[in-house]
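Feature request, filed as a ticket because there's no other form

It would be nice if the structure record came with a short human-readable summary line next to the tokens. Right now we just get the raw output. Example of a typical job, pasted below so the devs can see what we mean:
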Amino acid sequence: MTDLRVLMAALRVSLSELPTTFTPLSWVTSWLIRSMFQVIFFALLGKFASSDAQAHYILLGNIVAVIALEVMMINTTAALDWYQGTLPFLVSAPANVGAIYLGRGLQWVVTGAVSSNLIFIITSFVFPVPWAWWQLLPMTPLLLLIGFGTYCYGCMTAAVAFRNPKYRGFFTNLGFLILAVCCGINVPVSAFPTPVEWLAQVLPLTHGLEAIRAIIDGDGAATVTAQILLELVVAAGWLVLTRLSFQPLAARGRRDGSLSFTS
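Raw output as currently delivered:
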């Protein structure tokens, strides 16, 4: 089976699972509101600790980071397949396991973009910000690119959790924490030591967030385009790594029988 066919089949399964994961009411109450108050908390922290400009910087960074946090739920999807006993069937299928999991949680990219857009609109009315509420809406394609890149990165953490499902929460939080610290959400990347700055360049959120900041600040098209192209390259890199990483883990699980939910 081709990777594209596998990915589309996995996506159909994921979309069918979405209504069983969230109802509209539970999504708003258990996810959207919690994420919005988390964004507001960090923005207020920046305001009282520094200035309005810093608060605006942190506010925008955390709004965009919501999509990254949501797509990290792919770790839960991978672990559920293990606990529900469906993982051995997926691994035994004549398809690349990485392609399967690249499609298993793509719905989180879409719902994450919706979350970020809604929080952007709501907080734009709550805070005296130097941008209009509608400005992020035309940037939704860029937000989806950020979501896809961070989703591929999340799939890599899911590959690690693939063999250690009991620690899926740890891998989810660690993966997002690296993004939150290094990618310029609360502190500019240039403020970090050189090794951290280098790491940030290969993380999927960094360049997409810089592109959004450049658009909001009215920077030139060349700056925005360069950051978008870098985000595309980084996303492609994590996509390839995800596809390659799952297969050896699956092969090892077939050999030692560790992919059974009874193991």
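Something like this underneath would help us a lot:
The chain is about 80% helix and 0% strand.
The radius of gyration is 19 Å.
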